[in-house]
Amino acid sequence: MKAVTHSPGRKYGWLAVGLIFTLWMSGCNSTSTDQNTSNDDDKPKVVSTSTMITDWVEQVGGDEIELTGILKPGADPHVYEPVPADSIALEKADLILYNGYNLEPGLIKLMNSAGANAKKFAVGEVVQPLDFNYKGRKEPDPHVWGNAKNAVAMVNAIRDQLIALSPEDKQEFTDNATQLTDQLKQLDTWISQQIQTIPQNQRKLITTHDAFQYYSRAYGIPVAGTLIGISTEEQPSAQTVKSLSDSVKQTGVKSIFAETTINPALIKTVAEEAGVNLAPQELYSDSIGAPGGEADTYVKMLVTNTRTIVEALGGKYTAFEPAEEPKKISVQ
Length: 332
Description:
The protein is α/β, with parallel strands linked by helices and 332 residues long. The chain has 10 helices and 10 strands.
């Protein structure tokens, strides 16, 4: 049988057709990718500092913003040292939302130099601060999120900042903020009810650092002592440890508390010397928990802290059951 052959011209003709088709498809794909990139680039770029603010912003902003949270769960804002990626994010931002009251001094310094073109807004400073004494002078306490009512004010401030940034998304921002603040109001009432179940003589809070003043004032559980002050940069002396141990004995409380962002060794020593329990669950003070954990949102953080306090001090814990769960989206 005679073999079938094709002429060279016909062979190269088919190759040319194939090449044209490949280039056409590549052009289509490229156009699609460019469009997607363009859509992403059209979203306002928002940078947030603390994990609490990041949680609120992602719930209010939804898919209408491109959000970058600088501090990751477990990071201590008092001593955080910025990295080059932080500078890049701040330089590209349209809006920077930070706590203020000098909570994140390293980031505030970087923000003022790197984020020159962005609008900067101190979310925490919408709250009238409680004071603390530092080296003989009064300073504002930055841990404003300890009171859920304060969180309502801060969420509404975030809503307003996002509306000013992207007015066409006003309705979505408003709806999202309403959903979240409704839950925060329920949370505020629930915490008060839980703390009231603790026996009066045990209703005292002793922690590693002075981060719970707002929680204490709002929910009627006095801070009876802390190992260090507002900033976690402080290094307590042996005399400080002994003094707190003696104070714990005098209060008569049966449990004291470590915190997730601070080495628990010294507060454990205080508990041992005072002859009291160190609560098995650490409190979340300056950061929410890791993704997928029991405290990976601001609401869940306060629920977890309240449960830890109530159970360790002899109260009766009842689960928090909000009327509606706010939606959660991913953050870059």
